[in-house]
Amino acid sequence: MTLRTGHTGLNVTDLDRSLAFYRDVLGFVLVGEGKEEDRRYAFLGDGERLVLTLWQQASGGYDGARAGLHHLALEADSIDRVRQYEEALRAYGADFAYEGVVAHREGAASGGIFFHDPDGTRLEISVPSGAKGAPVPNESAPTCGFF
């Protein structure tokens, strides 16, 4: 396959609030922004490439019952880094889907944290290994299903 994910664009209700969350809590770098009242947006990167774009175009929060984005999964370098993000998110007051680091499925070495952004968009920060022995919230379904 020749395609790979480029950046992800999210509609948000309040650009300033979302920008503060993704930049100040998750550590994305502001690459560019549009400040015209009816055309507000922010481009966020990781220091090397564009990763996420925020568009102030939503009139309501995330709705998991509608077609579209299920969740945005981000990968960290280590399980220790996942725990650092968890600490920052808790200090921010983020809403978590599960308590602490959880495995992707029973016996998996992969896992992470699952939480919501200010508009309720479901997010995951995980690692491919390092979570072995972490609890599994739902034994009959993948953790990233947000069941």
Automatic annotation (TrEMBL):
<dbReference type="InterPro" id="IPR029068">
    <property type="entry name" value="Glyas_Bleomycin-R_OHBP_Dase"/>
</dbReference>
<dbReference type="InterPro" id="IPR004360">
    <property type="entry name" value="Glyas_Fos-R_dOase_dom"/>
</dbReference>
<dbReference type="InterPro" id="IPR051332">
    <property type="entry name" value="Fosfomycin_Res_Enzymes"/>
</dbReference>
<dbReference type="InterPro" id="IPR018146">
    <property type="entry name" value="Glyoxalase_1_CS"/>
</dbReference>
<dbReference type="Pfam" id="PF00903">
    <property type="entry name" value="Glyoxalase"/>
</dbReference>
<keyword id="KW-0479">Metal-binding</keyword>
<protein>
    <submittedName>
        <fullName>VOC family protein</fullName>
    </submittedName>
</protein>
<dbReference type="InterPro" id="IPR037523">
    <property type="entry name" value="VOC_core"/>
</dbReference>
<feature type="domain" description="VOC">
    <location>
        <begin position="4"/>
        <end position="128"/>
    </location>
</feature>
